[in-house]
Amino acid sequence: MSESKKLISRRTTILGVSFPVFLMGLVSFFTDISSETIQSILPLFIFEIGGTGLVLGLISGVSDAIANILKGITGWISDKINKRKPFVVLGYSLSNISKPFIGFSPSWEFVLGLKATDRIGKGLRTSSRDALISYYAVEKGKSFGIHRAMDTLGAVTGSFLAVILLFFNWAFSNIIFFTIFPGIIAIVLVLFVKDVSSQELVKQPIDNDNKASYNKIDKNFIKLIIILGVIEFASLNISFLIIRAADFVPINLVFLIPLLYAILNIVYAIFSPITGSFSDKIGRKPVILAGLSLLLLSCVILMFPITQSLFSIILITIIYIFYGFYMAAVDPISRAYIADLVGKDKRGRAYGYYYFSVGFISMAESIIFGFIYDIFSEFWAFLYISVLLCICMIIFALTDFTKIIEKKETK
User: What's the CATH architecture for 14-195?
Assistant: First the structure.
């Protein structure tokens, strides 16, 4: 891209961000309408076509693992070849074309294949998309914030779309295939995103004196990954919360489940910047522990059987709100912890290692939970997670990262 065109791209602003950033926000908006319309009902659809708790854990675990593992790998590859747009276009196209056909799946095996394809698309696009946003951003914080807001707005819109269609008695399969329309809009829009020329992405050479430290994996970072891995292993996959919600909500009010999912996303969007600011002021650990405490309380409540009533609907609504706060307290702040403990020149690789490890850990967690849920009962599954959470919180509370961070900052 020429210097003049580059300046035009950055000067043309919408909502206070450059046009390319806004365009990628629109792509994420329509993609999330498609994704979250499906996600809000997918566990129910899987059970409808004969799936079980173990199957749900397998699908959730494998698909999440694929996305997380590929984020690190494709980010590294795009750095090497100095190309971003091919990964972004291929990733969004693959996801938005494959996932609507989940609605035609005759069995859970087809769902697994199509969901995995969708997650391959997510893994392909995420790192390159973020790199393009950072390049086109005039103010990086504002640009990523607007993009995240549009992404979340798409998630909320998708959830409400599922509510409306279920209210009018649409079948799960029809709702899922209907998402091909916002998906096609996203694919068309992403074609207009301009790549950055390879000349503008040439990396600065690494000082030979610092090359050894650049290639070295800090033992403190490995320690942090282990601790965050424990947190991830003791988490609760949202798919099981959706399935458990069906025990709290009468079948004639099933449209309330995607509504609860929308509320969860709204809470997550509202509290993410608040918890982030709090963690800057009072430290990361207290905020993460607050989020884990609410997840623990939710899991304890979900252990026990309940009779469907107005009280059960209110209770599951509160649990969804708790889960939204848990996500806001743990998900972004875990990433902030990584930035605290690694130098600026290592953050790309650090997040790659983080996503890679989280991918495998989340897969094991989902499969084990699904196995217990399926073979024994929801009581034992949520008891298992509750015990793991207690152990996790003790380990995390007793681990002191303060000196490690201070040591890092003095270098």
Answer: Up-down Bundle (1.20)
- φ/ψ of residue 354, rounded to 5: -65, -50
Q: What is the pLDDT of residues 296-328, one digit of tens each?
A: 999 999 999 999 999 999 999 999 999 999 988
Enumerate the CATH 1.20.1250.20 domain ranges in the chain, comma separated. Answer: 14-195, 211-411
CATH of 211-411, one of 3.40.950.10, 1.10.10.10, 1.20.1250.20, 3.30.70.100: 1.20.1250.20
Q: What is the mean pLDDT of residues 21-30?
A: 91
The residue among 260, 55, 72 whose CA lies nearest residue 162 is: 260
At residue 81 the predicted structure's pLDDT band, cuts being 50, 70 and 90, is confident
For the whole model, what pTM was predicted? 0.82
Q: Give CA torsion, residues 273, 277, 330, 78, to 10 deg.
A: 70
Tens digits of per-residue pLDDT, 325-362? 998 888 777 766 666 665 554 555 666 677 777 777 87
